[in-house]
Amino acid sequence: MSSFAASKILIFGGTGTIGRYITTALLHAKPTFQQLVLFTSPNSAKEKASQLDKWKSEGLSVIVGDLTSEDDVKAAYNGVDTVISAVGRGGLQHQINLLKLAESSESVKWFLPSEFGTDIEHNDKSPNERPHQLKLQVRKYIRENLKRVKVTYVVTGPYFDMWVNAGPGLEIAGGFVPEQKRAYVIGDGNGKVGFCTMRDVGKFVAATLKSPEASLGKALKVQSFVVTPNEVLAEYERQTGSKWEVIKTSLDDIRAFEDKLWNEGEPRATLVTLRRIWAEGGTLYAQNDNSVLATQLEELDSLEVAAELNAPQDVITCQKKSVSLKDKVLSLGYKKSSTTTVDCIPMTPASFAAISAMFTVGGLIGALAAGPFTSRRGRRLSMQATAVCYLAGSVVETFAASVTIMIIARFLTGIGAGASTVIVPLYISEVAPPSKRGFFGAFTQISINVGILFTQTLGYFMSHDSAWRWIFGTGVIVAVAQTLGLLIVPESPSWTANVKGDVASARRALQRIRGKNNNIDEEVEAWGAGDVKPPGERERLLAGEYAEAVEAGTGLLSPPLSPGSRAPKAHLGFLEVVRDPLYRPAIIAVVGIMFAQQLCGINSIIMYSVSLLNDLLPISSAILTIIISVINLGITIAAAPLPDRLGRKTCLLASIIGQGSSSLALALSIRFELKILSAVTVLLFVAFFAVGLGPVPFIMASELVGPEAVGATQSWALGASYVATFLVAYLFPIVNQALNDALGGAGWAYFIFAGFALLWAGFVTRNVPETRGKRDVDEVWGRTRRID
After folding, report:
1. In this model, does residue 252 exceed pLDDT 70?
2. Which residues cross the membrane (predicted)?
């Protein structure tokens, strides 16, 4: 079998605790295997339908059958050359029949039994350990009966994900309880244990299948890392920034507890025995076999990655009670209290996805509705309406106890967020000094970055028990502060003058904002209102002219406007602006800029940056995410003055060209595995985004159209942003995977982003005018201003 290569693979137990990691790793292996088939029971096919559907979309074939039926197994073996068994402890006895049928089949040549876990032939004591007996029977059958089929054992040692958590009632056997900051340490805590993470089990199996010459007929002892309990404790203390309570236990205590459980017929005795074996050195080798698979092996998890405290999602959805991974296996047979809890909301991954998606749906609706509403009702009332949405949504989120209620709450906050992204940039642009609009316009993006950073930090420290509710609770505090603050915020002077027609009130509001000693005549003239001052000779003359006209019967339709006012302009609706040829170029410009903001790849970069930097910095990805957000915020603040100094269009072009160049460099660095260059290009990409495409798109609508159309135009812009964000979030993983599968390796998608950047640079050059230093929209577009 020297030329044998695994190509058509059948997996038993592929949806189980460890099986799902193996299935996922094989689906994503490069190069891909010719065929992957998963054999599952009717019950699993029903209960895990969503996971199976996802895998099917990635190329997995599924056979539903009975593991104990020879006919079903024989049919599944047809045409298969490699079989992987990932059955759990309860199904180990069925492997002998699977091996028997594999030996008698015409196609199966290689079999990997379910040996993932503790080494059952580590030393002379191993054959006597009770948890090993079923696996030892399988090995005995293989030695005595298999002649044609080759067998490889992938012995991974204990799963760190399970070992690290002290099971309820089993604390004496060692482990950690992160929500209580408590460690149960065996002996002095310096005894080494070799571990494999569940994710790395999948990597080892994939590497084994891609290395048949080095793997066939062998028992491979592989490990992610070797550490002591004290080293794990130090990592947890580093992440939480505080000392943990340490409770010492001894091997003698564990042995006594183990005997007691076996004598009582307690199922969890197996778990205590395994922990005792690990503590006695049953996972240590002079040298493991990682090097045998080195040429095909992906990078393995480090202790820092494996011990990472989780984000809020797992706690909110009841997958975990706290930031630590809760080992459900350790709690088998443990009698739980009947007391109910509202610390979490039970939900499936599909439910969590629906809750997340509903925020986006609300955001799109809010963005589309906000433009017309703020044009009719004003900026101040519109912002007050968003505060109400925030307040209502945050209160419901904080106390929600069901998926349905959480969906409603996220929809409400989504409406508020979507509307705010339309209204707030308009208000900032209309109250900011004309020469500083670019600088103040950047505050929209700065505020978004501050919010992201604040929420990530809260998530890092509050992902335990019911503390996650305070993450939503802070939204209540912010909403109350916004509601109270808006009571003293003046209405936009520009809206008051141009839409409401009350120029005198607008002038007073603007003077209040600028300060009583600052001249505002030029800004008032930009409204097309002229020098509006208190009634005097001009108003008296106008009144006299009107009286004379009435006496002469010249038929004036209405009396002159009251002093300090003029006829309000009718606002344009969402569809009206795009139909009007006067405003259509502006709609094309803002929609294009928003699509450029997303299609140049910023969201994909943010998603990829953690994995890239994680290879270089030995810290948890949660902290890395916070660090990246800090960098993004710092660069955005530093770049805030640039739109006013260099111009909006210049900043947009510099941003797009910079991101395109960074995408090209990132693609090449990934292809050639230059990790340091990859990390540098990620940071450069974020920096170039902050220069232009981050802040500038939010201020362009107010500078490309007049007040009568600005609300609808901003709605077009933010609606396009939500659509583009959805397209990138949905299509990027699909396209990225498809390209990597078709072309081999990774990084190909960033060549596409580089190409997009070139296209958008051409678009901005041709379709987006410069607005810096322009008095009004007519000057921006080079039109002659009409004087009636």
Report:
1. yes
2. 350-369, 381-401, 407-428, 440-461, 467-489, 586-610, 616-639, 676-696, 716-735, 747-765
